[in-house]
Every structure is written in structure tokens, then in C-alpha cells.
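fyi for ur records
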Amino acid sequence: MRFLWWIFFVIVFMTALLYGQTSLDVLAFIAGYDQNNWQQTLDAPFAVKSFSGTLEKGVVVFGGMQNKQAAFVKDLQTGQWEIMADTPFPVHRCGGDNLTGPVICGGIDNSQVAYMRDYQKNSWNVVKSTPFKITDIAGDNAAGPIVAGGTRVVIMRDFKANEWIPVADAPFEISAVAGENVKGIIAVGGQNNRQVAVLRDFGADKWQLLANAPFDIHDVSGSNAKGPVIVGGTNNTQVAFMENYNLNKWKMISNAPVSAIEIAGFNDSGAMIMGKKSGTAGSLNKKIRQQVLKTAVVEFSQRGNLGIEDAGAIITEWLTTSLNKTGGFEVYERLSLESIMKEHELGMSGMVDEQTIAEIGRLKGVEAIITGSVFKFGDVISVTAKVVDVATAKIIKSADIKVNDINDVSKEIEALAWELAKE
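which gave:
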């Protein structure tokens, strides 16, 4: 019996080892937003849970077995990883950089915090646990950590004092924070995870709400002195930054080539994203629905001055091709929006409700109809799509992509198709 247990243990261990080897993450960085050109470098030494750092000082990563492994690289060009001592508890999130050392949180109820001052000594120091479950951590060893959970935020100015100091509650539920103790913090979260606020002065206890983000935020980086940079949206590849709080306007850049775990870096020197390579079902860890849907695609409606007369029809063609690649759909027909509107006497508004879509699908003998629109609002061009179940007339999946240039839609259309194919 004991022998069988040993065999079971070996199988589980080898499976975990193989999984770790096949799910390693890659670092992508953009050196300047004006270049708008992402570069991929540095495969991680293990599957990454959290990372931090800057382009100039290198990065530190955590994850691997039990989320206790740690490694750093000081020079992104040489790409030489150095393994650190295992962390004293499983890591949830991290902050800091290679110059002053990292700070981490996790462990029991995500309330434990530790730091490493000196890579040569290679030892972790655990500080007093926080009074709440931590959602995210920011700051560094020079000025002390900032932690957030719910709407609560506390800071530790001095590791020797080992006391958490509460600051003003955030104006919404926090999902991620960034910044440094000496310059204040940035928080994101709230409604649809698109709200952003800054606290510039801990003594003033006053948060400033910024313009809502152009997509759902997955993570934030940057500092109050230089502005925030965010990642999220489609497959966590969309990136935007704000370089001036007075203008209070988000500027989108080209999508990252990896599906982000987190983002790090600053506005004045560029950003880094650690994640899985985009472009295939396996690399984005997608779980595609088991049932292959026999599908028709309705030509997308278009609104606003897109600069291309047949943008809706062109985007529909691109999406049709990408949908067939996912394995989740068999597209049998592309339906003309104009013909449908004439047939059902809908006028030229382009508005087709789900009941009408389902009726069209039944007449065409398909299981699902995909329809959507492309429109421009301000500087943002949005392509939205939905999958309607013909039998129930219910929307079973929806997704969108956002770009600043109509010519960039073709680069993101495959990501939209994969999102629609997910369970």
C-alpha cells in the first residue's frame, strides 16, 4: 500500500513539474510610449505569480512551487536570473525593485508581509501582519510598503517601528495599487474595475478621482510623480497611461504581446508586463467550449467617422476567419445587415434585438448568431461582439476590443475571436 502511495506522489510531482515547465511566463517591455513598440525578452525561471521592478534596475519575480520561489535579474540585456531564498510564506503580490529589495505579501489570509534588504545576505524579514486581508502591495524598502484591502489602506514608514499607519479610505473597493510612500499612491477598482484615484498627501487624507479608464483594469503601475500606467481589457493585453493629471486624459498604446499577470515600471521610462504569450489557445490559457457551435455572423454595424466606408463589413470578414481558427465555431454563413433590415422592416438604424437575431438564426438553421458593432467615441474605436443562442435568444458571450487607430483592429481581431470562444 505504501508503495502505491509513493507511485502516486511521483506522478503528482512529475505532473506539477511538467506543468511548471510548460506554463512559464515571458517578460515584455516597451522602452518609450512614443515608440509604441513592444519587445519580448527573458523567459521566467518558473511560473510567475507576481513581479516588480523597472527597466533600469531589473525585475524580481515570485511564484513556482507553492508560490514560494523567488528570483531576480539586474540586467535585462544579459538576462541572467539569480535564484533567491524561498519566501517565508506563499506570495500573493509584491512591490519594490532591485535597488532597495522587494516587499511581499501573502500567507495566512493574505495578511503577512516580509521584505529583503540585501541580496547578498539573502534572508527575509517578516513584519507585523496587517489588520485586514491584503488585495495588493506597493512601495519599496527605502520608504516602506503600502498595502490595501477593500477600501482600507495602511502604510509602514519604518520597519524598525513595525507599526501599520492607517490613511484615508479609498472612494471605492480597491483591486490594485501602485506608488511610493514619499509621493502618495494610486488605486484602481470600483465600478467595472475602471475607477482610478490618487492620494498625493497622506496627511491631507483626500483622494482625487481621475477619469475612468478606457477598459477594465487588471493591474496598475507608476507613481504619483510620473502618472499611472494600466493594463487590462481584452485578454489583459490593452495598455494605457496618463502623463498629466491636469489634462486627466488616458492615452492608449499598442497592445502588449503577452496576456498580463501584472504590469510594472513608470511613465517616463516605459512599462514591463509579465505574462503568457498571446496568439494561441494554449499560450493564453484559454478554456474553449466543448460544444462547437454552428454559427452565422451578421455584418457589423458602424457608427461614427471611422474613415473607412465599409469598416463593418471588413471587420466581419476578419472576425469570421478568426472564429474558425478557435475550434469553438463553425461559421456557415455571413449575413448582410442591410438585407436583414429590409427583410424585417427594421429601417436603417442598425438596431437588431436578440429575439430578431434568434428568429433569423432559426430560419438559417444555425445554433448561434454572432453580431456586433464598430464605433468611434472621441479618440477610441471600439469593436463589440456578442454570441446569441438561437434556441433561447440569450446572449451567451460578449467581448470587445478598443484601439486608437482603425488600422489596428486587424491586429486585435483574433483576440476578440478567442474571447468569444471561451466557455
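The first strand starts at residue 26 and ends at 30. thats all i got for now
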